[in-house]
Amino acid sequence: TWDAASGTLYAVCDDACGGEIHAMRIAADGVYAGTFQNVAAYLAPAGMPAKAGNEGFAIGTCENGVAPVFYADDSETDKISLREGRMYCGAYRGGDDVLLNLLNINDFHGRIDGNTVKFAGTIEQLRAAYGDDNTLFLSAGDNIGASLFASAYADDKPTIDVLNAMGLAASAVGNHEFDKGSADLLGRVTDAAQFPYLGANVYAKGTQDPVLPEYATFEVEGLTVAVIGAITQETPSLVSPGGIASLDFGDPVDAVNRVAAYLTDGDEGNGEADVIIAEYHEGSIDGVKEGASVEDEIAAGGAFAKIVTQTSAAVDAIFTGHTHKEYAWDGPVPGSDRTRPILQTGSYGENIGQVRLWIDPVTGSVNDYDVRNVARTTSADATLTSAYPRVAAVKTIVDAALAQADVVGSQQVGSVTADITTAFVGDKRDDRSSQSTLGNLVADALVASLSSADRGGAEIGLVNPGGLRNELYYGEDGVITYAEANAVLPFVNNLWTTTLTGSQLKVVLEQQWQPDTASRPYLQLGVSENVFYTYDASLAKGDRITGIWIDGQPIVMDAEYRVGSFSFLLQGGDNFTVLTEGTDTRDSGLIDRDAWIDYLKNNSPLSPDFASRSAQVTGVPATIEQGETLTATVSGLDIRSLGAPANTTALVSIEGSSAVFDPVLVNGGAAQISITVPKDAPLNSALVVNAEPSGTGVRIPLTVTGTFTPLPPTGGTTPPAETDLTPQTQDAIQPQGGTTFKQGQTVTVTVGTQYAGQTVEGWIFSTPTYLGTSVVSAAGTATFTIPANLPAGTHRLVVTDSAGTVIGWVYVQVEALAATGGTVAATGVPVLPWAAAVIVLGLALVVIRRRRGGRAEG
User: What angle do the packed helices 157-165 and 389-409 form, to 10 degrees?
Assistant: First the structure.
């Protein structure tokens, strides 16, 4: 079938090959010049039976950009010989309207890889169908930064070269264009780009003077088309503040409206436009994959709602970006009953956004439009390069970049035993509102890299989720290459340390709930494995963190803690502003990439830790009577990274009691607990919840009222003999969370479910030191506290049964508490001044984490 409007010949394969359709065009040059070449392959029309004999089709009259299509089926499948469908039609629509074909990308982030040629080919297919003269290829920003290794290794020049080759007409500036500072953008980047970066709301500090072009104009079929660019006002919190100290970022909608006003005021002296396109590097919180609609996002308020409802009616189409969401919506035009297209493609060139405007050539009014996202083509690279000269040029650039990067990037730097990833929603990575195995691992790596005194003495690691730009996939062999490691942390931030008080650390965790104006309402920090915290999201902002534990001990609000992270975060990035208030802030001299790769080399093979490092706890009363029913909810137990198991069961016990309870069902990461407090529950006890199979555990202190006190153990306080510590009992017990402890730390030891309900004793050797007794929980665990005055060094931890018989022993390493870490007083456990209400609510928790296999501790 020949479509004269688009210059395309469609060839149809019948039921012998599933009704596949190939689109062909005459090649302009090359060895195939003057001959028809495949430019796209399509599956059989949606809804057509699998065995239909598709013998060809006829294209009807194009109307509103869509034409009816009639398919002939000689097999008479389902007794039907003629079927009707629809397709997007050619570059004409009838009448004298001018067609403006707008193609758009956002958040490409240097995707120089095996898909780049297909990305370019998709643009060329859409450009060819409607003509070069009628097409503008545009971007909503973040073309570079957070890039794959092949681009990042060469300072993103391959990406800029690809966009130049593809004829990118203009781009809004994105926050990642500022990753290396404004001087780099205004120098190296803009010098290399053959297209303008637009930023109508980027001003010289303290002025309203734009430092970037506000708009660019293009002539299309006698019409002047203006493209206005604007960037998210959150940019100062998204990049290192030092790099943009000379800039201010204003309201993007106000800036677009200001420029649109003087482009339509009738004054030729300040520029005029017939058609106005807005490119915003800002977008919706959710998109179509999350089930959202434009009405939902307007109702949610914030920056995107203002873009949709308050952008000047003079703007004819709106492209957005930044939030990596996918949508193609009809947005209301303020002051009218009309709509206009508003679109975001997702990210990484997976889709090309297309808006077609049919414009009155005299008045410049848009008479009609359509809007859609077009998935990246699956056509063969060879087909695309032979049909489109621009794609051939892109392939040359990509091949050279990949070859250069492969020299370094293919070197092995580590290995994993399974995928270690960001949080996923379905098949979509980078859920920044959820805890992830990768975020927690990187936080562990920060502590390992920065713990020595000469590197800053970090005790705690913090990771912003937006800093994680790729995954550690197991693949076929678990090997992690230099390029793959670099892709996880591509920003080349310096690693810093700072000192925070306990009060400030609490505020850091509170700031995970972002300001009302932020694009994302919540950002989940990755935390190092020695940190556990609890929260109640229903409480008022600023009061949602209900407990924090460092190395198993409650945080001390006026104590000081050394925190290690990226320079971006410690300068207040992502709205974690309290981090700028730290003292003794130091640059370690390391950059994230180098420290990360060293960590992978020294600690491989690495395994994902599926134990949660936070939990939401509600419903625990201030006090409870023996014999009363205790009802509580513990949630947030599941991690959403690839491979993470969904917890199914929680084993519940009362510390110090011999009572054994039925397992509790865990559904959606939440356990609804309802038990009767046993008569032998000690007056100062704890509710212990162990979620399986992830190994996450929570210990919730309880204040129990009553008169019964459990009997002391029958074994007395006579230590076992040295000769009882035999090879047969070595490692028969297992401390959870590893075998390295701090002085004064509470330790949970797995002794076995066969001892559930029994009272056991704990000892430290060589000089026998009595640790006291513990009633083994239903999960087979006992809890002891390492004496605060126990000398640092190697010891043996021993557990005996009620008769004094050794159950098992294990070598452990006891470390001195850091001077800033809040040493536990000999008279008891410190109480958080801010947590008086928490203690009343019974929400002081201590994490119990199963030992992680397959990776080095520390």
Answer: 170
Nearest Cα to Cα of residue 845 among 408, 638, 550, 474: 550
What pLDDT does residue 413 have?
95
- Where among 368, 401, 434 does a domain terminate? 401
Alpha helices in 476-526 (DSSP H): 482-488, 502-510
**In the block, residue with structure tokens 């960590």:** 599
352-393 pLDDT, tens digit per residue, is: 999 999 999 999 999 999 999 999 999 999 999 999 999 999
Q: Specify whether 54 is located in the same domain as 19.
A: yes
How far CA 117 is from CA of 120, 380, 391, 562, 728, in Å, comes to 5, 9, 6, 47, 62
What do you get for the CA distance between the two ends of the chain, in Å? 67
For residue 161, give the H/E element and its range: helix 157-165
What value does the CA radius of gyration of the chain take, rounded to a whole number of Å?
32
| CATH code for position 662 | 2.60.40.1930
Number of domain units in the chain? 5
Give me the pLDDT at residue 20, please.
62
Residues 800/807, Cβ–Cβ less than 8 Å: yes
102 and 81 together in one domain = no
Residue 825 confidence (pLDDT): 29
Q: How far apart are CA 675 and CA 682, in angstroms?
A: 16
Boundaries of domain holding 767? 722-827
What distance in Å separates the CA atoms of residue 658 and residue 679, rounded to the nearest whole number? 10
As beta bridge partners, residue 179 has none
Give the integer Cα–Cα distance in Å for 243 and 245: 6
* CA angle at 590 for the pair 110 and 609, rounded to the nearest 5°: 75
| C-alpha distances out from residue 748 to 684, 774, 844, 849, Å | 17, 10, 16, 8
In angstroms, the CA 666 to CA 650 distance is 6
Element (H, E) at 386: helix 381-387
Per-residue three-class SS string for 47-59: CCCCCCCEEEEEE
Please check whether residues 255 and 289 belong to one and the same domain: yes
State the number of CA atoms in the 13 A half-sphere of 610 facing the CB.
18
Residue 737 has pLDDT above 90, yes or no: no
pLDDT digits (tens, 9 = 90+) for 591-638: 798 899 999 999 999 999 999 999 999 998 989 999 999 999 999 999
